[in-house]
Amino acid sequence: MNKVKILAIVGSLRKGSYNRQLALAAKEIVKDTADFTLLDYQDVPLMNEDIEYPAPDAVKRVREEVKAADGIWFFTPEYNHFFPGVLKNLIDWLSRPVSENEPQVLAGKPAAISGISLGMSGTAIAQDHLVTLISFLDMKVMNVPRVTVPNAWQYVDDQGKLIMESIYPHLEKQAKAFVNFIQAKCL
Ligand code: FNR
């Protein structure tokens, strides 16, 4: 069977982001079954209807990447029991019709969610908010299994590198489930 195309969207712009490291670990796990790309969206401007049409180049580019993907895997931190504003801003752009003749690009796309945070929730509260948003946008959410890693400090070495050992089995389980979920939904 052909490899599925997974686009990873990390809700943190931080260079050493633990969520980014989680995404890179997932990339390694799925390398035989999926082409896995991390979306770079740092240049997407703040949503402003005054600049919506024609869409800024950065918005055009991220839309094309979403359109080309068979599934979207979100890796999100939790900021104040929510997902970060940078992610909400990106999704707000993606939620809008491309043109009068072309609808928004997220509808119907399979989605998975993982996250790691310093606090005890392990991003579970942020993930639930994200599920509400992306379900409204008609994404097909794989609710089980999700990965929620609390107390991130326990898994980080003194260089800020994630020690994946005990997280790995959960991520592997989710990765396999998501590839199957995508194949069942859209291939
Ligand atoms: C946080 N953090 C945090 N953690 C948590 O478990 N629950 C929370 O509600 C919050 N709130 C919060 C708000 C803001 C504004 C910041 C900057 C941080 C801590 C957070 O888990 C930690 O910074 C993670 O390391 C962020 O993820 P990345 O950047 O490592 O992927």
Report on the structure:
The chain has 187 residues and is α/β, with parallel strands linked by helices. The protein has a single domain (4-186), classed as Rossmann fold (3-Layer(aba) Sandwich), CATH 3.40.50. The protein is built from five helices and six strands. The protein has helices at 18-29, 57-68, 85-94, 124-136, 168-186, and strands at residues 4-10, 34-38, 71-75, 110-116, 140-141, 147-149. Helix 3 links the parallel strand 3 (71-75) and strand 4. The protein is globular, with a radius of gyration of 16 Å. Residues 4-154 form the NADPH-dependent FMN reductase-like domain. This is NADPH-dependent FMN reductase. Pfam families: FMN_red.
If you average the pLDDT, what whole number results? 97
List the total number of helices: 5
User: Which blocks of ≥5 consecutive residues have pLDDT under 50?
Assistant: none
Order of helices and strands: EHEHEHEHEEH
- Do you know the CATH architecture? 3-Layer(aba) Sandwich
Bound molecules: ligand FNR
Number of domains: 1
Name of the CATH superfamily: Flavodoxin domain
Rg result: 16 Å
Helix content: 25-40%
Kindly report the oligomeric state of this protein. single chain
Helix/strand structural class: alpha/beta
What amount of the residues lies in strands?
A: 15-25%
Shape: globular
Number of strands: 6
